## 1
Amino acid sequence: MQVIESPQEMQNWSRAQSRAGFRIGLVPTMGFLHEGHLSLVRKARELCDAVVVSIFVNPIQFGEGEDYDRYPRDLSRDLGLLQKEGVDAVFTPTVKSMYPEKEQTTVEPVAGMENKMCGRNRPGHFRGVTTVVSKLFNICLPDVAFFGQKDAQQALIIEKMVRDLNFPVRIVKGEIIREPDGLAMSSRNVYLSPEDREKATVLYRSLLMARDLINRGEREPSRVREAMLEMIKQVNGAQVDYVEIYNAFDLSELEEIRGQVLLALAVRFGTTRLIDNLLVEV
Amino acid sequence: MQVIESPQEMQNWSRAQSRAGFRIGLVPTMGFLHEGHLSLVRKARELCDAVVVSIFVNPIQFGEGEDYDRYPRDLSRDLGLLQKEGVDAVFTPTVKSMYPEKEQTTVEPVAGMENKMCGRNRPGHFRGVTTVVSKLFNICLPDVAFFGQKDAQQALIIEKMVRDLNFPVRIVKGEIIREPDGLAMSSRNVYLSPEDREKATVLYRSLLMARDLINRGEREPSRVREAMLEMIKQVNGAQVDYVEIYNAFDLSELEEIRGQVLLALAVRFGTTRLIDNLLVEV
């Protein structure tokens, strides 16, 4: 397994793989890997000849006062896990090599997909994501790139970017991997105190309850939303960031629940912000 | 020579060339080709194995009230010229195939390079350029892309974009090709009346005069600028859009004329806007 720090070297490596006729699969991550990431790596292994995992905590997708500095990092543990999965190359650039100049050309997502859900309280977050993903695509030259469905809005914004800018990359989404009690796996789960860890199951429980409501015939988005808010309110210390229900393809508003629907929420426990979502087909 | 309309087909063609080990050269144009374009095609022929010329009048780089609708077009003449140059493929997409969705992810140049010169009176122009060039790079997959030095600001903004977003593309700039009387070749020259065509030589004449001033020791940007303005003012009907002097690498302001300096100007004759520039080394 190659561990490559320099963007130029990484691009050379990828170009050589590509010239040799190998299909490259890229799994972009911020490290501190869990089963969610590893399930994407296994998918990549299945569909591609050469698997690249990038590990880069991208500063420009964090807002002021967010957890960039304390975001959990453990490179040597990550490398051990990836080695076991048979990954071909790990790309671990420095911030300086990714952003060498003071000002930076950016990639701007469409407003209608960016300014809601995680984008509402994290202005500039998705611009940071589309910009770094464009860079990673151009450096790692993947034929296929793998994103987790846990970041549903991110995956949709990246799919839109790939269509709009004609990136020669196929996007594959991996389903949410959960702990036995239903909590979606996330690098940020380590922030939780044992009490909050237990309370955090309310995210998934509220989603399952909402799906139940819908399956029993509820078609009014506001009523489903209110039932979820009500359930979360019962949990001491859980602060709702958002609970939203959108068209699952373009995040447009719904007059009634119909077709492929995305139920999504973000909840804070102290300074830790967790997200989760569920796709429901009506 | 292949003439390809569909972005998907173009991408397939380019990918096949690339897989076969050929170096692809791309010359992006808006058509109505002149010697300036053809000199870039010849450079591409020299440096690459497969030459692609794109012809696309890109609506999103034109502002309201600009000349998008009347921009000169003559595809069959263009194809004849390119055939003679031994071009391998011409990419002629429709607007609908390039912008199929209502809203579009864009590529945003850095403000400090965009908001001056041609960007000052054409807001959004360079965002349209960087967005379409990103699309063309992702569709045509060039190893080398060729841009004319006549659009000096455009070339610098694209070079910055390539560095910032790590496009695996080398940028080669071709010098300005001029008519015998010095007028820089431009598809827009056909708009000029015979009288204005003659007057239009003032752009290049003012640049040569400015270079002379500098060569004779002038180091004060404002004095060089004023001398150019004064000369243009003598020409009846010539309306200055801008006359500017910048650092030739990053378009930063100059306290004194020193190093590689870009002298650039835009002048209107009636509704026709012409640009020109000169690099001066001190």
## 2
Amino acid sequence: MVFLKQQYEEKVVARNNQTVTLHGMVHALRDMGGITFLTLRTRKGLIQCVCTDKSALDGVSEGCAVAASGMWRIEPRAPGGRELTDASITVLSRPAAPAPVPLARKKLDLHLDTELGLRPVVLRTPRQQAVFRIQAGICRAFREFLQSREFTEVHTPKIVHAGAEGGANIFRLDYFGRKAFLAQSPQFYKQTMVGVFERVYEVGPVFRAEKHATQRHLNEYTSLDFEMGYIDSFADVMEMEQGFLQYAMELLKSQYAADLALLGVELPDVERIPAVRFDEIKALAAEKYGYSIRDPYDLEPEEEHAIGRYAREEWGSDFVFVTHYPSKKRPFYAMDDPADPKFTLSFDLLFRGLEVTTGGQRIHDYAAQVEKMERLGMDPAEFESYLMIHKYGMPPHGGLGIGLERLTMQLCGLDNIRRACLFPRDRTRLEP
Amino acid sequence: MVFLKQQYEEKVVARNNQTVTLHGMVHALRDMGGITFLTLRTRKGLIQCVCTDKSALDGVSEGCAVAASGMWRIEPRAPGGRELTDASITVLSRPAAPAPVPLARKKLDLHLDTELGLRPVVLRTPRQQAVFRIQAGICRAFREFLQSREFTEVHTPKIVHAGAEGGANIFRLDYFGRKAFLAQSPQFYKQTMVGVFERVYEVGPVFRAEKHATQRHLNEYTSLDFEMGYIDSFADVMEMEQGFLQYAMELLKSQYAADLALLGVELPDVERIPAVRFDEIKALAAEKYGYSIRDPYDLEPEEEHAIGRYAREEWGSDFVFVTHYPSKKRPFYAMDDPADPKFTLSFDLLFRGLEVTTGGQRIHDYAAQVEKMERLGMDPAEFESYLMIHKYGMPPHGGLGIGLERLTMQLCGLDNIRRACLFPRDRTRLEP
């Protein structure tokens, strides 16, 4: 038996003009005659190592994992403002083959299928790293903001006995001889947890068996969900989301500046997000851009795009809340507007012309929920454990779900949602 | 169109001797003659409201969601050291039926099946809330600690084309006509992401189709995974875990004291965790407690228990790392010990006699990984996209997976893992 060391110590604390050993993978090697520049890919980003002694580079090639020892210098002329000089290199591991694409090139411009097929390697490029660091930053902001607002994190099951969204777009599996499904959203569970903690959030996977093959659909994605009690109206939910977005943009600006700069991301202004009724904005956009409305109950992709453009041009905002969606298109737990039950107390948030959030107020009264289910031809008995929360008392409440990949895609200006997902799942893609 | 309010404002900021309005559900009502004590269940915990005016309580019953207006007082004699006096109550919603169990009772002592069947309501009791607040605290500690150590959060797919653990214990589903599986762990993906970010973590669901019906198995659970590059040995991974546990216990002590006190939880000492070889501790425990070893390649539950007891009695520790597991029992990506390839450079962490973590060093060399797969009768071609990372270069690396529910269960002294999972999934349970 041995005891572990009492405190975990990081191996590298680099100070100016000190000898240090860094670890990383050889990203690029440039022989300039008497001097060789070795770019090291580390968890702190790319670091330039300057090697004057050729023999210190024996057997070193791109793709090797190495330890680089040398003098750490704050050097404004070096990329990133720092470098390792007089570097000597120890190889820790070697690749079996050179990378299939030139990872050190500024932009790869690969065909999407090629890129996704080679994802495990292509992700090693700085631009791809930047996308997913920003994505991690969004998640971090979501949790930090909600925690400061006294939300409690929950983990709810992904194997379920009934879908929250209904319909055919649900994956089925055999669960020890019983029929089960993959959760389309944590809806029932997060509502349940409002009865417990009042305010809850969850960051987790959701599954949609949609046969889409579009640039904005995935069959598995990460949903940022929250749900809160004691709302006066669904405006409370929208304001909470606006608060999150404000916090997120501040966090990205202060902590992820290098990643934003690399991708040329301009952060949106989220000081005051406009909110407009579904029927109102539909008419406004159609009138301004001279098209006719085809589907009065939903927004088509082109319409979302037009509304995004309208919000940008008329109200100077990259975001716009579209409120009061038709009841026909919202699920059974959505609360109808007492002023006009053809519409619901609900909203979508569009970001640069793409829906990134769906939310609203939920029915909390037992009789009202049972009545609506029956009106829609559903059998309340099948939802007994969900209806327990209404039966034994629920506060007025509402919440939302944000598509993490969609938010990342729009923020980073990507042309396909698959580029905003580490290992995307679509109709034909199950690996890597 | 309207603009949202610029800043989200919380509705309640309670100060001593100020009139405030609180929201919550009526947890208990005690009529003491001229005075009525109403206990409000809020997201800040239970708050006692003192009502002297009976008419202010008209129609109020347990299970109602209410707004309570009154004078906020710091009052050391009240439960929690604060109360709302001269309270008047507005009912926001009413239950359709009284709760099926007395939620205000200190301990419910329900049969497990009854408790799980009524979970949506039973979770509203303070003891259950405490368990899951502590669980949220563990997750928070995991992320905060790893973030401070420059780990990046990742989200990897749960629908996969091959299982990381192999074997029959995997859920199958139909994926648009193709065979797919639910991920048993994020193993392949977190290793892949070491090649990208060097240090990564993920908190997410994993799925095991095990036919167990034990007190310590779930078919879906939350796994806290991390993976790190440039390790000198798997001791680096164990030290990182010890660092996390130290951080977690400090965070719980400072931020979750009321929950710990309510459950009577004594936090374990994690200053120095002992590490001992698998074969060594097996022999030591068997000798000390006088039993014979039945399975030389694995630890049976009773043996884990004995080892936990041994670590407590001999080394004063609730935790013990058991290292160098036999290669036979570890997956194909585990690195064998060059000193004796019958064993692996791996470990489990036992907490009070129960395995809560499995980890170790992974093979990073392409040829070595292919060779081991072939030796085990696997076809490397089936793992082409995974092997890409080895082929194009990987640093020495290792990592672990922690079972969140097991850690919660052992910490809170629960007798069944189902009590440490909001909505457990076992062989017979698919709802709530």
